[in-house]
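#structure-requests
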Amino acid sequence: MALGPRLDIRQSQSLVMTPQLQQAIKLLALSNLEIEAFVAGELEKNPLLESGGAPDTQPAPDGVDRTEDRPALSAETGASDDLIAQGLGGTDSPLDVDHGADTFIDDGPGDRMATDGVSAGGSGGGMDMLSGGYSEDAPDFDSFAAPDIGLQEHLMDQARAALSGMDIVIAAQLIGQIDEAGYLEANLLQTAHGMGVPLYDVERVLGVIHTFDPTGVGARSLSECLALQAKEADRHDPCMARLLANLDLLARGALPQLRRICGVDEEDMADMIAELRGYDPKPGLKFAHDSAAPVTPDLFVRATREGWAIEINSATLPRVLINRSYYVELSTGPQDRNSKAWLADCLASANWLVKALDQRQKTIIKVASEILRQQEEFFRQGVAHLKPLTLRAVADAIGMHESTVSRVTSNKYLSCPRGLYELKYFFSSGVAASGGEGGAVSAEAVKSHIKALIGAEDPQAILSDDTLVDMLRAKGMDIARRTVAKYREAMGIGSSVQRRRQKALKGKAA
């Protein structure tokens, strides 16, 4: 058989992930706030997209109530798998868009003030414009105030008032190496070498910094920080100095050994410990202004007469519309071949984005509805009734892929009457019921029982891990001792010995 080149025609099937389909998958894993940022970027790039405000409650000029035709979100229809399988990202078909909704650009605080001022001035003259222009919606002027100064700026202000010349330069070098908790991270010998000054001068300037507010700032260890505060309170006697030099013994609860080292009785030791509890181990945090961003829920769950209702948090989810009139205006005007291709791409991208956002909401509602159905006892009675649940169980119940459920539950938070929970919280492993009589208990429920038992324990009868195992088995939870220890440590709860020492210290300090 001779070898030679030839042409063959073959037909085959393969899964092709277009860029739009890849983006649709990524949208599922984004929270509502991240979606808002993504949509803001699309609005800048695509002139056919515009941000829609709240639906108009007044009837349209033509008398048609368009809210009747608006599709409602349903937990029974729609899935992200359908979007990927059908390739809806590439379609260019028209959408059911509410053309009657008004679009607007949010005015800034100054614009609202001007509007309020004009309306008030028109009704009552100039004085009314000043006094009546501010309503409940007026801007909060405290939000425009300059932020509070930080720790290093606060220390430099004191250094400029207490020092001069080269000492200010040394102080600036030391203050720049104080962390947010107020501790000095610099090596004094290396600092003196680097600046070309005697070590004595650096130590002298550091001594001045130790007198600055807040008390204890510039310390190089916890014992030095507490010692500076004890000196400020005139409580730094030899006994307190020995106690501060042996903080590791205090952490272990070795009170008899500490009493021998300090040369005090039980009453004096209790007074010294109570004094230490009044000190601030991290004085610099008073000037820390970085607050954790609050978590915004993506879903709301509330009880109704008919059952449970799930609602998407529309306050953080932008409403995107396609400006069809602008598209018609551009398409009918003079344009070359490249302009037509660009305009077609813009329309296809806009259609895809609107459909992808709608499909994302339907998918989230569908997954959340199944979670609610399987964890209904949690919403009714609390965490002690949380059931073990897996991603595969939810995926099989709603006919989706497990990876899709994983993306939907990532970075999503659910707000219900019992609090704010991440959707991943409802997925946990199970602990077998005692006696092997079917059913299982969620690991989170077991942790809740352990925390409740330890919280209610008698200080004179601290519960050991073995005792906790027996008490949990009496509640129907077949759990091993090592599992109890693992759950206890995961919640930050100490062992029975550590808890006994802590409660003994609290009792003496009280």
